[in-house]
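Students often ask why inverse folding is considered easier than folding. One informal answer: many sequences map to the same fold, so there is more than one right answer. In these notes we will look at a single instance of the problem. The structure comes first.
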């Protein structure tokens, strides 16, 4: 029996979906532990690109079970659309996908609350995806939320109505122009609820306990980057859940001492979507090249990602907070063609040079200090072994390993599952 954990170490979009897909054949169970449909995992194989929002990334493999844990928030409408989109692949969704009864539901009014709240902030917007994630987690911590298990109760519609009515009163409080047809949204919601009922709901913490006793192997899948963690990320420009390793325990009901390997995924450079500080963001040609070559647009939102150089100060912090045991570097191929690469190895913070991640990384407080490396010109996308990689890239990887004191076990050289080099 083993329970391993895979998560992103930056501000998301690190390529977690691809790596889960690559690793899936080694595990019996793939379990998503936090986040909602604001997170999109992109998998590419057989010439087809797939974007999963809520469903774990192991769904395309025949011999494993995919579990949506209690830490996830589910929008039934988005979920139905996601399942409908998989219909053409003849997957046995009903037997392969199960859901924790303790996962919370995103209501139509949660999405409206999200839009009203963001509109009211004006220039101080935090860059919400407007999927209703934040308000749903607020209801969860405020002990108002509805959960998957409530769908099975006879008075579910009454519970729904009471919460939706409360939300509408809060929307009025924001006093912003917001046009919507709630009756139409609710019709779509309850239709999706009926589809959701066709799947299996479980008491997931008991399910995992039994699976571990039976010797099943489990891979816990994080949905967003560590620097978006509500406690340890760049608050308030963060998501509403714990995206770090600790979130896997609370988001699934698995004890901390059961976690074995922690796989940390990072890009060879850094990206960020929406608002928030980003010390190594490049506003010149390099950032534009990374965005273009790396196709840096959100898989769910379509928003252009901000791009910049690798930040080892932030990465070391994420490795430390998560207890990472193995690193996986994505998108090394995007950096091919640069004459010189830069890596941030320290910050000048309020006049002092520091190498730890401070409380505040706003630009008025932090200036990145860079180490430069010679770039490589080779096209990496057809390379199959570490030995084939250019020496400049090997030097880059070995510097990262030495700085983080964790081995880089996997190097991705393209989006397809086959473009993955194991060291």
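Output (designed amino acids):
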């Amino acid at each position: 029996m083993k329970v391993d954990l895979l998560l992103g170490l930056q501000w998301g979009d690190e390529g977690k979906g691809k790596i889960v897909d690559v690793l899936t054949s080694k595990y019996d169970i793939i379990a998503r532990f936090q986040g909602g449909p604001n997170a999109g995992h992109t998998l590419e194989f057989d010439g087809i690109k797939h974007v999963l929002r809520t469903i774990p990334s192991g769904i395309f493999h025949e011999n494993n079970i995919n579990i949506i844990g209690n830490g996830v928030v589910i929008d039934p409408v988005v979920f139905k659309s996601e399942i409908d989109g998989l219909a053409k692949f003849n997957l046995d969704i009903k037997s392969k996908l199960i859901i924790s009864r303790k996962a919370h539901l995103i209501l139509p009014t949660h999405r409206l609350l999200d839009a009203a709240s963001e509109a009211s902030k004006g220039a101080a917007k935090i860059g919400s995806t407007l999927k209703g994630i934040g308000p749903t987690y607020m209801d969860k911590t405020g002990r108002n939320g509805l959960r998957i298990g409530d769908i099975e109760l006879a008075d579910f519609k009454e519970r729904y109505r009471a919460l939706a009515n409360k939300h509408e009163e809060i929307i009025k409080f924001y006093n912003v122009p917001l046009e919507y047809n709630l009756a139409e949204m609710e019709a779509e919601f309850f239709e999706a609820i009926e589809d959701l009922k066709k799947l299996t709901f479980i008491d997931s913490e008991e399910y995992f306990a039994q699976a571990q006793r039976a010797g099943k192997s489990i891979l816990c899948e994080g949905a967003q980057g560590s620097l978006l963690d509500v406690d340890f990320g760049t608050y308030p420009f963060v998501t509403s859940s714990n995206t770090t390793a600790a979130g896997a325990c609370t988001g699934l009901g698995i004890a901390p001492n059961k976690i074995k390997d922690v796989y940390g995924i990072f890009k060879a450079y850094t990206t960020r979507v929406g608002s928030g500080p980003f010390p190594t963001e490049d506003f010149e040609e390099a950032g534009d090249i990374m965005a273009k070559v790396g196709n840096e647009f959100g898989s769910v939102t379509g928003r252009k990602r901000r791009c910049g150089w690798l930040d080892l100060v932030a990465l070391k912090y994420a490795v430390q907070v998560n207890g990472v045991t193995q690193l996986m570097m994505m998108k090394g191929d995007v950096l091919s063609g640069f004459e010189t690469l830069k890596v941030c190895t320290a910050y000048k913070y309020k006049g002092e040079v520091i190498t730890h991640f401070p409380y505040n990384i706003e630009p008025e407080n932090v200036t990145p200090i860079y180490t430069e490396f010679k770039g490589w010109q080779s096209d990496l996308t057809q390379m199959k072994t570490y030995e084939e990689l250019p020496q400049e890239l090997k030097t880059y990887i070995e510097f990262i390993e030495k700085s983080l004191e964790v081995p880089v076990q996997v190097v991705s050289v393209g989006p397809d599952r086959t473009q993955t080099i194991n060291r």
